[in-house]
Amino acid sequence: AQSVTQPDIHITVSEGASLELRCNYSYGATPYLFWYVQSPGQGLQLLLKYFSGDTLVQGIKGFEAEFKRSQSSFNLRKPSVHWSDAAEYFCAVGAVTNKLIFGAGTRLAVHP
Amino acid sequence: DTAVSQTPKYLVTQMGNDKSIKCEQNLGHDTMYWYKQDSKKFLKIMFSYNNKELIINETVPNRFSPKSPDKAHLNLHINSLELGDSAVYFCASSLLAGDTDTQYFGPGTRLTVL
To answer: Which of A22, A96, B71, B106 could form a disulfide with B91 if both were Cys (CB 3.0 to 4.6 A apart)?
Structure first.
């Protein structure tokens, strides 16, 4: 069955520190992978996506993610976190008929 | 200009009532979706329409009925509301129905059933 696991429910980092949010997926075919961010009280905004090609993808707001097929992972990274990055982050895999299967999300808190 | 809009933003109602949530997209997309986000922030797809035709219908109670009057609109009608229907409902749209198409989300409708 298709699934997405985000092992970290809640992460706290200091402003300016680096960030890595973990995402593991289970999918039988070539996965199409997404990271979305949800700010408090807002909808979801696409940060980046991986379909094929270069396994390191760049997104908006200085985020990047690396697809590792051998580890079934698609971790999100940012070299220096800003206070405005505090939000909920969702990893998702695109299944047949464009059904997005989401992970449970990781809440990021940023300390000044 | 708002790409995907939903109304209302908040909806508080009593158990047993019938209510509707409306969604409109001005992106010219062919495919629209409804997702439910529960109290633990878990997001799950409910329905998807492509060119006004239903293409995804997850195991959702038949009290939930989507209606797509045209490609730009996908409304969600809920009959006989229950406490467990309390959630945030997100509408989304994508250009096509392929599994690589980016979905654009609306701001959500927070439904509270008392």
So the answer is: B106
Task: Give residue-wise pLDDT tens across range B18-59.
Answer: 999 999 999 999 999 999 999 888 899 999 988 888 888 887
Q: Which residue among B43, B100, B106 sits closest to A94, beta carbon to beta carbon?
A: B100
- The answer, yes or no, to whether the previous bond of B8 is cis (omega within 30 of 0) is yes
Give the distance from CA B37 to its chain's centroid: 10
Give the CATH number for residue A68. Answer: 2.60.40.10
In this structure, which topology does domain B4-113 adopt according to CATH? Immunoglobulin-like (2.60.40)
Distance from CA of A10 to the nearest CA of B (A): 12
Per-residue pLDDT of A16-67, as tens digits, reads 999 999 999 998 777 889 999 999 878 899 999 998 888 999 999 999 999 9
Query: CA of B35: which chain A residue's CA is closest?
Result: A100
